[in-house]
Amino acid sequence: MSETTIEDYLPLVRRPARYIDSELNSVRKDPAKVRMSFALCFPDTYEMGMSHQGIHVLYQAVNAVEDLACERAFAPWKDMEEQLVARGLPLGTLESGRALSEFELVGFSLQYELSYTTILMMMDLGGVLLMASERGELDPIVIGGGPGAFNPEPVADFFDCILLGDGEEAVVEICELVAIAREEGAERGEILKRLARVAGVYVPSLFKVSYKGDGTIKEVTPLMEGYIGVTRRFLPDLNSAPFRSRPVVPFVEAVHDRLAVEIARGCTRGCRFCQAGMTYRPLREREPAKVLEYIREGLENTGYEDVSLLSLSTGDYTSIEPLLCSVMGAFAGDRVSVSLPSMRVGTLSETLATEIKKVRKTGFTMAPEAGSERLRAVINKGITEEDLLKGSRDIFTLGWRAIKLYFMTGLPTETDEDIEEIIRLAFDVRREGRRAGLHSVKVNVSAAAFVPKPFTPFQWEPQITLEESRRKLAYLRRNTRDKKLGFKWHDAEMSELEGVFSRGDRRLSSAIIRAYEKGRRFDGWSDEFSWEVWQEVFKEEGIDRSFYSSRRRTKDEILPWDHLDCGVKKEFLWNDREASLRGEAIPDCRVDRCTDCGVCDHKVLKNVIFKDYKDLPMRRASRAGAEQGDKKIRVRLEFAKKGRLKYLSHLELNRTIFRAIRRAGLPVAYSEGFHPQPKINYATPLPVGMESEQEFMDMELTALGNFTPAQIVKRLNAELPEDINFNTATFIPLQLPSLSAIMEKQRYIIYLKNSLVGLDIGSDEIERTVRDFLENRLTEVEFERAGKKKVVNLKQQVETIDIKDEFTLGLTLRSSAGVSIKPHEVMALLFQLPSEQASLISILKTRTVLKSH
């Protein structure tokens, strides 16, 4: 976003902190001092994108190279898109605000088929031509990567190249290749041919696709000699790749707002519905000692209070118990909680549960996937009913009171009896909670239609029709209610659209463009999704969606992705499909025989596991946590909040300061209870968009460390962005009243000069309006805030309004119980402005006056 104009419209959008930079650990490089710049784009909101581990990995990998720059861009929400379009401004990156079209390389994360229209929106707003064939020599190279890269054909026309597989080494190689090619003056076609020689890089324009009369693919013809297909890029060993533990810490709360450390990549369980289980093979575990090192560095560099151990199946990590004991032993004193987001049934041992609940105990998720043992055998989900019931019984016995059960409908060979088994199994799980002695337990059932994916044994199978999906979800909705079970479901229409694109071909690109032109974006959000528009699109484009979703493929059919290779042999997938129909299991090659899937060469590529980890570190002294019962001291701090960080909400400011406290090693005290909270309090929330020269904050510390006030200020300022600055700290008695109880008044400077443009309000009018307001102000006035009517006593709250110069006012507001009017609201009443116009007025809070005590 352009820094010269963003102030004109940032107050008009929701969550403006999404669009400001300067987050902790973000990297800004001078474009003139690097060889090339890479715009890394995530086709969803900032909160979603910053929760994605791959964004952090690639961002740090590129920026670790001195003469390469990586900047981030996220999809603007609808209100921001409207502002950009209305002002003729391009979508730019957070770090520099440069338009996407100004970068040499623009990359998109292909996480979800329903993000395709959002990708087009970002390209269009960023000044990037949508069709790769129309881009010229000065246009950026557009690259994609992620899970969707394993069938990118529906969006192939929009991308110059696509990376299949592991990206942390490949992305640097690609950036350096583009930099060299640009320096040499290579033409665009030559650059694409060079990229095609990079392992894992697919250049769609170097393949021509032809079709038969029945709509199936006739042939995929290579157009470059020696380039007959693309094999996925492999990272043989996670431990050999540099792991950088300085992830960007968002101001806005991300969906997954925690430190994420990948402990393993790949899975060998062989679930037949799971694309990631096939395309991420082989299993590569990260060495436990390195995991501990990365957690320690990451916590010190971020101030996070939560750690997530990432893997496709975290409980299958060979040394998970000693690793978790090590993590909890080292960091529980700092009140660090640990989440294991993908625990398979049967992998939550008593040891794991005991360690996890030391800090926090929330709901637990199990994924039976299918209701009956017969159907679980079909999908190679080797979980018996007894496993499920024993697992739930153990979870309830260990203190959890809520369990979520995840199922799919429409799995191959599924019958209505299998759907009925979902209800029975969920009810039996609920009964296990009662048997564990719990009077109140909650069992939530979550269901979604199965979408067959490329590179799985079910890639030839039909998806159930939309009508069948609706019928089965309706049955579950009705019967879970009767059994007093919670129920959430994924919209059947969204699953249908996902199925169309999941196994689609290049002919779908016209539908994606048409849908975008009809206003579609954020299709992955249920409240934004419009099935009606997509139905119109398919009709107008003459596309029969059932051809892609609910049609069975034959063994000899050429599939749209057959010229791409994830490493798993097509023959293996077909044979496994046949075994599924017989209900036969395939073993886990981690603990059993090799299944000859084709991925491993057993030299460079093989399963990497760590069995004998027992080196448990000594418990560390607490850095930022306090044991209850320690002697407490109370500190009153004064700070200023200015510049772009004025757009932080109160909660965002609080989170930013709290994490700075943790990084500074200050031993903050916590409340007692089930979810202890740090003892930090503010005088008053500062409205979003307002600067302040004087804010107050109280926090309690333990006596541990014996910090002086000056040391506290110095430590905090060293950990905070320059727009938040602590000025003083004072020790005060614990028994003094809270800041909110001693608030007396607040003083402001109102800058009107650039805020009343076009309203025909001059200095004389301002003076007359202020005088009339002070003479005739009503005792009570009504105004609107967030769509609700509010009533305040103006005589009580507005102490003074005075004119500083012709377009500058002084305003003093008294604090009062109940509804307090804000300075922008006073200006709206004063000049009869709509709230949107008033929000653009620049206001500086100069003083917070506290009552003497």
Automatic annotation (TrEMBL):
InterPro entries: CHP03960_rSAM, DUF2344, Elp3/MiaA/NifB-like_rSAM, Radical_SAM_N2, rSAM, rSAM_horseshoe, rSAM_sf
Name of the protein in its database record: Radical SAM core domain-containing protein
Record SUPFAM superfamilies: Radical SAM enzymes
PROSITE patterns according to UniProt: RADICAL_SAM
GO molecular function annotations of the record: catalytic activity; iron-sulfur cluster binding
CDD domains attached to this UniProt entry: Radical_SAM
Ranges for domain Radical SAM core: 253-488
